[in-house]
UniProtKB/TrEMBL annotation:
PROSITE patterns: CYTCII. Binds 1 heme group per subunit. GO terms for cellular component: periplasmic space. This is Cytochrome c, class II.
Length: 151
């Protein structure tokens, strides 16, 4: 049986409608919970990496790479977790997120880039490169929270 493109337009419309429904869901109260959970995951990843970098735990390159990968994935998801109009309680996001969207997304990109470098350093077994990338990770987090998070 030959593949037919006559079903492509209705299928395309169905996919667009499904994506729109997902976006509508994401703009509800659940998006605030999703980003809070994402931040908790990133905090856990940073804690694991910090203990290794600071010599407080066993240095395990596979665990470090896994945590760095998780951190990078979460960083790439950040902009999508801040749709317009989601600055209501219990969110601690400042309105500056949307007023200075370019800086906000740039900081998320910097975090993602640093996490990728950290993952690569862990895989390659380069403690010095991992330490340098970890400093960039924590700097990105700190700069973003200072500018865009209520205390």
């Amino acid at each position: 049986m030959a593949f037919s493109l006559r079903f492509a337009p209705p299928l395309g419309l169905a996919l667009v409608l499904a994506a729109s429904a997902g976006l509508a869901w994401a703009t509800g109260a659940d998006v605030i919970q999703a980003r809070r959970e994402g931040m908790k995951t990133m905090k856990s990843d940073v804690r694991i990496l910090s203990e290794m970098i600071e010599g407080q735990g066993v240095v395990d390159p596979q665990t470090a790479a896994r945590s760095a990968r998780s951190l990078g994935e979460a960083a790439r998801a950040i902009p999508g977790l801040f749709p317009e109009g989601s600055a209501r309680p219990p969110s601690t996001a400042r309105l500056a997120v949307w007023a200075d969207w370019a800086q906000f997304t740039d900081l998320a990109r910097q975090l993602s880039d640093a996490a990728e470098d950290l993952e690569r350093a862990a895989v390659n077994g380069s403690f010095e490169d991992a330490s340098d990338a970890f400093v960039r990770v924590t700097r990105s987090c700190r700069n973003c929270h200072r500018a865009f998070k209520e205390d």
